[in-house]
Amino acid sequence: MTEIPKDHPRYESLIAREKVTAGVKMGITSIQGLISQGRGESFDYLIGERSTKSALYAERAAVAALLLAKNPVISVNGNVAALAPEKVVALADVTGAKLEVNLFHRTETRVHLIIEQLRANGASEVLGKNPDASLELSHARRLVESRGIYSADVVLVPLEDGDRCEKLVEMGKTVITIDLNPLSRTSRMATISIVDNLTRALENMIKLGVELKKERKEELVKLITTYDNKRALSEAISEIQEYLKTMTVELEY
Amino acid sequence: MTEIPKDHPRYESLIAREKVTAGVKMGITSIQGLISQGRGESFDYLIGERSTKSALYAERAAVAALLLAKNPVISVNGNVAALAPEKVVALADVTGAKLEVNLFHRTETRVHLIIEQLRANGASEVLGKNPDASLELSHARRLVESRGIYSADVVLVPLEDGDRCEKLVEMGKTVITIDLNPLSRTSRMATISIVDNLTRALENMIKLGVELKKERKEELVKLITTYDNKRALSEAISEIQEYLKTMTVELEY
Fold first, then answer.
1. Domain covering B53-240, topology
2. According to the model, what pLDDT value does residue B1 have?
3. Which of A83, A245, B156, B162 has the most other CB atoms within 10 Å of its CB?
4. What is the pTM for the complete model shown?
5. Which of chain A's residues have a Cβ under 8 Å away from the Cβ of B35?
6. Domain ranges of chain B
């Protein structure tokens, strides 16, 4: 990796860029994953590269849903494996969720490399290698495991595409997404849409997991029943608008 | 390239993505160029993937500046060569500008491949292979040709980084940029900041070149002296805000 000084104003963003580029070189991330990373960078920039109030609101509800689930599953793709392998493993540990590799541009080599990457980061079991069930989708991204995503009641699908997200919602699952674009089809389709950077979102969710595990079940149920996803998305857009307003003043445009 | 149906709502954007990916495979575009493409996609999405009024205002002034210049030069990097080689060549023809390859991640192979790509698209001469002058910058991106960018009075630097843009402005040049982020350092530094998608901007500029060539010199001078870059950037931000407002209503957030 290129050396990036820790005091660089955009340190985190540059490190993430290096990680995804390294993921491509290692064969974990598809080349299209770099374009997705770039799209995310722009939206992150527009919310000021911080976890906003609405993001934390969605993250809290998401963790409650994972903790209450009977069969929670975290779906892992090439960008997630490159950016935050240790964090998805930690979140799975805290919430008792399974990990399943699921790729848009699936190759058996990539599935294998990602499983190895997650194992190297402490995962004991990772599903996805022997898919024995199918979502109603074309291409290899339909492939899932029956005891994983297929039968899950709550699925966390970070950096997911809209089609797949929609299909999982149609199957009656609670679908949690992490996507920096509050207008994307993914964000619009999901049950709980987290508009936040992947690394920050996972860090917040791990902390929230530790905290909420101590709560009574009724408290967790309340977090979910009072959660309003349209409100979260609408606030995410307002936060971008606020940021643009502030910048306009600052730059004297 | 993957087959993309012409009636896909985001056809142009997907084609551009394929072109940059092909550029990487051909060795013309650096892997980092994919992340830049993604960043651009997000901002393009936020202005509704169309040339806005403020973009056309900046493009008109930019073409006037190129037509009035003594030594206009168009700088070409790996993303430009992958996305619109035939269009930079056409714009150079219409405005009488020279073409010079200038790369952030410079390798002699990439310089050679980009020159060949431009020649295959009709360019007669392309500078950049034998840099005999230097900008005050670190890294290979300082390298320029004395009869090209170094001595140019007007430079078009599409998809440029902020440092280099700033340096060219400091040297007293009229610097025209094409950058979809109206808040970027590049947009803030440039003399004329075009906030538009590269392909659309070049298409507009070629048409404007044909049209403005017929104008009297005084008319072109007037286009430049009345041009206000802060106004263009401020309007570009307003256009994003308008788009977000419209989308909020449409999605019933």
1. Rossmann fold (3.40.50)
2. 47
3. B156
4. 0.91
5. 17, 20-21, 34-35, 37-38, 41
6. 53-240
